[in-house]
Design goal:
By secondary structure, the chain is α+β, with helices and mostly antiparallel strands. It is built from six helices and eight strands, in the order H-H-H-E-E-H-E-H-E-E-E-H-E-E. 34% of the residues lie in helices and 19% in strands.
């Protein structure tokens, strides 16, 4: 994570990984999740922070998830199911479960299918935010496989030379084992700046770099600028 996106030092609270995992797991359980799902959700968020992906870590996302559970948008105990499948594919209905938890289950299924037939392709619908997609690609790499994970988002990105949003940030990740070296991991949004990085900049008071966003009429902003208020900008590809 670039320094300008980090939480200001005066606002930082340093705690141990174990303590953070325990606290986040307890919060998820308070929201009604079963212990296994609560621990899996905590693992995704805490691992993101440990990798320096603070955009998708505890401080930037946990409050959102609590709000979505509280207002009923997310189902804490989803009856997720495989709607249809073949030896190498599956389609999962997430029953409004949180994506960071359903995603882990989906990748586990993909890995098992790949062990049997050489490839596993699993899609999920009817679920919430997927979080850092690289987390799930890494599940495959840790199983000595090449993993890919991506997701679609709502329209928030302008097409080139456009003035109306038509595309999502649609992040994609690829991970692969590397024998004696650490695994390869690529994880990025397909926009000039990730949506959650925009939020992190707003929280920390950091300037956005030129070319990341446009004004409301679609004109790219080509100088450093503070994150504008919602509705006053568009994101660029």
């Amino acid at each position: 994570m670039l320094d300008r996106f980090k939480v200001p030092k005066e606002d930082q609270i340093v705690i141990t990984e174990e303590s953070l995992r325990r606290t986040v797991t307890a919060i998820f359980e308070k929201m009604g999740l079963v212990p296994e799902d609560a621990a899996n959700g905590a693992d995704v968020l805490v691992t993101a922070d440990l990798r320096g992906v603070e955009t998708h870590g505890v401080s930037n996302k946990m409050a959102d998830y609590v709000g979505l559970y509280t207002d009923g948008s997310l189902n804490p105990r989803p009856d997720w199911r495989i709607e249809r499948e073949s030896p190498g594919t599956a389609v999962i209905d997430g029953d409004h479960g949180l994506g960071i938890i359903i995603g882990s289950k989906a990748m586990d299924i993909a890995i098992e299918k790949a062990r049997k037939v050489g490839v596993g392709i699993v899609t999920v619908h009817n679920s919430g935010h997927l979080g850092a997609v690289g987390h799930f690609a890494m599940q495959a790499a840790e199983a000595d496989m090449v993993g890919m994970c991506g997701t679609a988002t709502g329209a928030s990105i302008l097409p080139t030379f456009g003035a109306e949003t038509r595309m999502g940030t649609n992040p994609i990740s690829i991970a692969a084992p590397a024998r004696e070296e650490p695994p390869l991991l690529f994880d990025a949004a397909t926009s000039a700046i990730a949506g959650n990085k925009f939020r992190l900049a707003a929280r920390g008071g950091a300037d956005l770099l030129p070319g990341g966003i446009s004004s409301k009429d679609g004109t790219p902003i080509m100088e450093p600028t503070q994150p504008p208020s919602a509705g006053e900008y568009h994101m660029l590809p």
